[in-house]
């Protein structure tokens, strides 16, 4: 796999981020247009409302299918980084670190990880600032 760095660490799933989202937005727009036409014609109003409700339900499911695994990944990353910090320093991560900071810190190499953790708390670094401060990048090819 290619080396990862700040500029290349973002990963996109084309099937989800482009194909599915475009199809969902298109379906939503078409179902709204269908509902408007049904109201104007005074026909098939119930079917048009049901179609719109089904599209909204599918959109909600698509959002949850994306968000729930990401929440689980976030919890896993927090646990992994807490363990890594404990192995390197003998102490757990500072409780003042936010979830976003911890997720950003996972890219830091072993040498700079403890120092960067302390710096993130003291300077209240944003996740983006943490990623920019990393010198020795540790790749994460599993998160989408």
Automatic annotation (TrEMBL):
The entry's keywords: Membrane, Transmembrane, Transmembrane helix
Transmembrane segments: 15-36, 48-67
InterPro entries recorded: DUF6526
Domain of life the protein comes from: Bacteria
A matching Pfam family: DUF6526
Protein name: DUF6526 family protein
Naturally occurring in which organism (per UniProt): Paenisporosarcina quisquiliarum
Lineage: Bacteria, Bacillati, Bacillota, Bacilli, Bacillales
């Amino acid at each position: 796999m290619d080396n990862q760095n700040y500029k290349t660490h973002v990963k996109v799933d084309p099937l989800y981020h482009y194909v599915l989202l475009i199809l969902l937005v298109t379906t939503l727009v078409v179902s709204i247009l269908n509902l408007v036409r049904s109201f104007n014609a005074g026909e098939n109003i119930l079917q048009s409302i049901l179609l719109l409700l089904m599209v909204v339900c599918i959109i909600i499911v698509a959002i949850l299918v994306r968000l729930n695994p990401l929440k689980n990944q976030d919890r896993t990353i927090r646990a992994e980084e807490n363990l890594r910090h404990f192995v390197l320093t003998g102490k757990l991560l500072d409780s003042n670190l936010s979830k976003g900071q911890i997720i950003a810190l996972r890219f830091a190499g072993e040498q700079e990880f403890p120092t960067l953790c302390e710096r993130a708390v003291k300077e209240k670094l944003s996740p983006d600032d943490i990623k920019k401060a990393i010198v020795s990048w540790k790749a994460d090819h599993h998160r989408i």
